[in-house]
Write a structure and sequence with these properties.
The chain is mainly alpha-helical. It is 49% helix and 3% strand.
C-alpha cells in the first residue's frame, strides 16, 4: 500500500511539473524540490495530531469554549493607562505593570512598531513615550531618550495621526483646534439622508459617535509634575494644523480639509440651535448601544471613547454605566505578576469555532465530549435581536454570531459562517434546531451586497470617499465586500447544499472572478494577505461545486506553487499591504503554510509535492507540547495600520491542514 501511495505522489509530481509552461517559475522550482517521503510523513502524522489534540483538550474552558490572546501593538494598552489617569483611577501597581509591558516591547533602536518585524512607528512610539511619562518614568531615562530622538527625527508630535492627537489633547498636550472636527449634529441626520452615521463601518461608527461628543466638549485634564511631552514637538511654540498646501487642488482630501476649516469657524458661533438636541440624542445612542455586560462594540476604541464621552457629559466614574464599561475593559486585560496588557478585542467565538473544526478535521469524532461542549456553547451565542445592520435591512430576521462574548449590536458574516460550518455537522442534535441553523444561513444570504460579495458587519458599506476624510487616516471608514469574506460565505452555502445554479452563488462567483489578481491570487482583508484571501476563495468555490480545472482556478494553484519557500512553508509579511512587490514574501509561518496547503487541497492538489512538503514543514517544527511557534502577525484589523497576532492561528490551522492530509492519505490507501 505504501508503495502505491508513493507511486501516486510521484505521478502527481510529474503531472504538476508538466502542467506548467517550459521554463516557468513553477516548473523550475518544482524541479528543485525533492519528492517528500510519504512514509516518513505518515509515521509522524498520528503522533503530531494526537499531541495537538491533547493540548486543546487541556486548554478548553469548563463552559466549552476556547479563548486565546489577540495581540496588537502597545497603543491599546498605553491608551488604557491614559484613560485611567484621565479618570483619576490610576494606581501605582497598574502603572508599574503597564510600563513594564510597554518597555518590554520597545525595540533596540528605541522605537515601538505596529507588528513584529516592522520598522519603528511614529504614532505608536509617541503614545508609548507619553504613557511611560504618565507612569512616572523620566524623560532623561535611556528608553525615553532613544524614543525621543526617533520621534523628533520623524516629524515630532506634529506628524502624528488623529487618535494620537486626541489622547494628547485630553491632557492639554495638543490643541483641540488642530484635530479634525466631527460635528455632533451629524448624529441627528436620518438614515435615509446621503450623509449619516450608518454610511460608516461599524467600527468607525461605534468610535466616531461617542468621539463627536468628546470633540464638541473638548475636556482637558492638565498635567502636573512635568509629565507632559512638549519636548516631543519640533516647534513647541507653534500650533500644528490641517493644511491644504501639499494637497492637489482638485483632490477629495483638499476639499475635506477646506470643509473642516469651515466647520471650525462654525463651531465658534454660539448660535447652534441643534447642538443641545444632538448631544442628548448622541448620549442616548451611546447608552442604548452598551451591552448589559458593559461592552460597547466589542472593541477598545468604542469602549474607551464611550466612557470619555459620558464623562465629558458629566457622568461620575461611580455611575453604573461607567462602572460597567470599566469592568468590561478590565475583562479585555491579561495580567501577570509583572505586566498588564489590554487587548484591542477578544475572540472566544472565533477561537472556539475554529478549534472545534480543527479537531473534527483531524479525526476527533463529532460526538466527542470536547467538540459537543464547544458546539453547545456556540449554539447559545446566536443573536436574535436586531443590530445596526438592520438599519439598511429592516426586514431581515436576525440570527448571526459575533466575535466576542457580548456584542449583540454587531454580529458578523465571518463568525456566523464559521460557527455554522461546525453546527451544520451537529444538526441532528437537540441543542441546535434546524430553524436556528436556517435563520443563521438566511442572515448571511441577506447580508450579500449588491456587488455579489460580502462585507463583515454591514451591507453595501462601500462609500470609498469616506477614507479621504481628515479623520480617516487609517483608511478604515468603510466595510466593503471582500474576496476572503465572500469565499467564506460561499463555503458555508456549499455545505448547506447550495450549488452553482443558485442566484446567490452565481452573484458571489461574479464578484470573486472580478477581483482576482492577474497572477491568480486574491487579496485578503482579514488575514495576511494574498495567501489568506486565496485560501478563503478556493475553499469557498470548491464548496459550491465549482469546476476546479477551470483556468482561473489553475492560475491560483500555479501562484501558490510558485510562492512556496525553499523550506516547504509559505509566508507573507504585513508589508505586502503597502508594497505589492512584497506579495507572498516573508519567513514561513505555521498559519500561512496551513492556509496555502488547505487552498491547494481544496483545488484538488491533496497529495501534490507542494502540499506534502508543507506537511513536512509543519511536522518538523511542531513543539513537544503539540503547538507551533509563530511571532509574526498574520491577522489584520486595518490593513497597513493595525495588525493582529491571533495566538490560536499558529495551532488551529496547522491542525486542520495535517488532519486533511491524514484523511487524504487514508482515503488513497483505502482505494488500493
Amino acid at each position: 500500500m505504501d508503495e502505491i501511495i508513493r507511486n501516486t505522489v510521484n505521478r502527481i509530481f510529474t503531472q504538476a511539473t508538466r502542467s506548467d509552461s517550459p521554463g516557468s517559475a513553477a516548473g523550475q522550482r518544482q524541479k528543485q524540490m525533492p519528492c517528500p517521503d510519504i512514509n516518513a510523513i505518515k509515521a509522524m502524522l498520528d503522533g503530531a495530531i494526537c499531541k495537538t489534540h491533547a493540548y486543546y483538550f487541556e486548554q478548553q474552558y469548563g463552559d466549552g469554549y476556547w479563548w486565546y490572546e489577540l495581540e496588537s501593538n502597545v497603543t491599546i494598552t498605553a491608551e488604557y493607562l491614559m484613560l485611567l489617569h484621565f479618570l483619576g483611577l490610576n494606581t501605582r501597581e497598574k502603572d508599574r505593570k503597564i510600563a513594564n509591558y510597554i518597555l518590554n516591547k520597545q525595540r533596540p533602536d528605541g522605537t515601538w512598531a505596529i507588528h513584529y518585524g516592522a520598522r519603528g512607528d511614529l504614532n505608536t512610539t509617541v503614545e508609548a513615550y507619553f504613557a511611560l511619562k504618565l507612569a512616572g518614568h523620566s524623560a532623561d531615562s535611556l528608553p525615553l531618550c532613544k524614543a525621543r530622538n526617533f520621534i523628533l527625527e520623524n516629524g515630532g508630535v506634529e506628524g502624528t495621526r488623529v487618535f494620537t492627537r486626541i489622547f494628547l489633547a485630553l491632557f492639554g498636550e495638543f490643541s483641540w483646534r488642530a484635530i479634525p472636527s466631527i460635528p455632533v449634529e451629524l448624529n441627528l441626520l436620518p438614515s435615509w439622508f446621503p450623509i449619516n452615521i450608518y454610511i460608516f463601518s461599524s467600527w468607525a461608527r461605534s468610535t466616531i459617535v461617542p468621539l463627536s461628543v468628546v470633540l464638541d466638549l473638548r475636556p482637558v485634564k492638565p498635567l502636573l509634575d512635568g509629565k507632559g511631552v512638549r519636548e516631543l514637538y519640533r516647534e513647541p511654540g507653534r500650533l500644528p494644523h490641517l493644511t491644504v498646501k501639499k494637497l492637489p487642488v482638485f483632490s477629495l482630501k483638499h476639499f475635506f480639509v477646506v470643509l473642516d476649516h469651515i466647520f471650525k469657524v462654525w463651531e465658534k458661533f454660539k448660535l447652534r440651535p441643534l447642538r443641545r438636541l444632538a448631544l442628548k440624542k448622541t448620549e442616548r445612542w451611546i447608552r442604548d448601544h452598551q451591552e448589559s455586560s458593559g461592552d460597547w462594540g466589542g472593541i477598545q476604541p468604542a469602549m474607551i471613547n464611550s466612557i470619555l464621552a459620558l464623562v465629558a457629559r458629566e457622568y461620575n466614574v461611580s455611575h453604573g454605566t461607567i462602572k460597567r464599561g470599566l469592568k468590561a475593559i478590565e475583562r479585555f486585560t491579561i495580567e501577570t505578576d509583572d505586566e498588564l496588557v489590554l487587548q484591542s478585542c477578544i475572540s472566544p467565538i472565533w477561537d472556539t469555532a475554529l478549534t472545534a473544526l480543527a479537531l473534527e478535521y483531524s479525526g476527533v469524532n463529532k460526538d466527542h465530549f470536547s467538540v459537543l461542549q464547544a458546539s453547545k456553547w456556540l449554539a447559545t451565542k446566536q443573536i436574535f435581536r436586531k443590530g445596526d445592520w438592520s438599519v439598511k435591512l429592516p426586514d431581515l430576521t436576525p440570527g448571526g454570531w459575533a466575535f466576542e462574548f457580548d456584542n449583540s449590536w454587531y454580529p458578523d458574516v465571518d463568525d456566523t459562517a464559521v460557527v455554522l460550518m461546525l453546527l451544520y455537522r451537529h444538526m441532528d442534535k437537540e441543542f441546535i434546531s434546524p430553524e436556528n441553523l436556517e435563520t443563521g444561513l438566511r442572515w448571511i444570504i441577506g447580508m450579500q451586497g449588491n456587488d455579489g460579495g460580502w462585507g463583515a458587519f454591514d451591507v453595501n458599506n462601500n462609500m470609498r470617499l469616506l477614507n479621504q476624510l481628515p479623520f480617516g487616516d487609517l483608511e478604515a471608514m468603510i466595510d466593503p465586500s471582500t474576496s476572503d469574506l465572500t469565499g467564506r460565505a460561499l463555503e458555508i452555502l456549499g455545505l448547506a447544499g447550495y450549488n452553482l445554479s443558485h442566484r446567490v452563488v452565481k452573484k458571489g462567483l461574479v464578484f470573486i472572478k472580478k477581483y482576482q489578481e492577474t497572477d491568480g491570487s486574491w487579496w485578503g482583508r482579514w488575514g495576511v494577505n494574498y495567501i489568506y484571501g486565496t485560501w478563503s476563495v478556493l475553499s469557498g468555490i470548491a464548496s459550491v461545486g465549482e469546476d476546479m480545472s477551470k483556468p482561473y482556478v489553475r492560475l491560483a494553484v500555479r501562484w501558490l506553487r510558485t510562492t512556496q519557500n525553499p523550506d516547504g512553508g509559505w509566508g507573507e509579511c504585513c508589508g505586502s499591504y503597502e508594497d505589492s512587490s512584497l506579495k507572498c514574501s516573508g519567513q514561513s509561518t505555521p498559519s500561512q503554510t496551513a492556509w496555502a496547503m488547505l487552498a491547494l487541497m481544496a483545488a484538488g492538489e491533496g497529495l501534490s509535492v507542494e502540499v506534502l512538503r508543507g506537511a513536512e514543514f509543519l511536522l518538523n517544527r511542531q513543539r513537544t507540547d503539540g503547538t507551533w511557534d509563530e511571532e509574526e502577525f498574520t491577522g489584520t484589523g486595518f490593513p497597513k495600520y493595525f495588525m493582529i497576532r491571533y495566538h490560536n492561528y499558529r495551532n488551529c490551522f496547522p491542525l486542520m491542514a495535517l488532519g486533511r492530509i491524514q484523511s487524504l492519505i487514508g482515503q488513497q490507501g483505502a482505494k488500493h
